[in-house]
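Input set for joint prediction.
Command: fold jointly, output tokens.
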Amino acid sequence: MGDRLYFEDFEVGGCAVHGEKTVSEAEIIAFAREFDPQPIHVDPAAAALSPFGGLIASGVHSCSMMMRLMCDGYMLRSASRGSPGIDEVRYLLPVRPGDVLRVRMTVVDRRRSASRPEMGIVQARHELLNQKDEVVLEMTSKVMMGCRVPEAGA
Amino acid sequence: MGDRLYFEDFEVGGCAVHGEKTVSEAEIIAFAREFDPQPIHVDPAAAALSPFGGLIASGVHSCSMMMRLMCDGYMLRSASRGSPGIDEVRYLLPVRPGDVLRVRMTVVDRRRSASRPEMGIVQARHELLNQKDEVVLEMTSKVMMGCRVPEAGA
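tokens >
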């Protein structure tokens, strides 16, 4: 339990970069064939004629790759109890074959649960970065996080 | 092009249900092993001891399955030009092995593009329904959609 992360460890303003993940054309196509078979994601020839000039990853694929970076970066060693949802997912730049992705997590707010003294809510901004340090995708989400020390008399 | 859907075909208040998709335990585990390997999504024994009482699909997996239902339901035969993002993703109920999912799409707003007469923006609410007609996931998104008849003098 030595490096396990609890509510108390997520300080507002705290920021960390995790990863990396290299994206292949085969992965982009395989994911999109199953979940988002639009030509821009599955057909390199059609994609080459599009305004993007080539194959780009599906938005839900990029979200999924970001989730894996979050898991490996901190979530799997945290006291996370899940998320009620996600806000403001913004697709800012395309993700292309060969891109190398990392995730930057910034804590924007946190509060203890009013009803459950053993829990807190951490609000974080997650930005998916490529190898040029460009933000390709951003989103805000809340995570319910167990506390190391339950609130006494709060 | 007979049944191709354009901006003009998405009327505010318009609503349609598309699908269906049956979710298997194997799919839940396979997706989560790649993108969200938290015990609740990959380990049936650990999940059985959790508050959910069993394995549940990763949130990004549910979003991905919804995207596929959207593609097959209307997007692949529409003049969609992509989305700038998603808002208010809410995980309302768990998605479990054996669930049968459909998507309900409701047009909440639309407007012609001010700068590009051949395009419009359709704002839609998408709800993922299970076999009990419960909403398990909802989100709001905007899609840029080509117009059948470009605006003249607007």
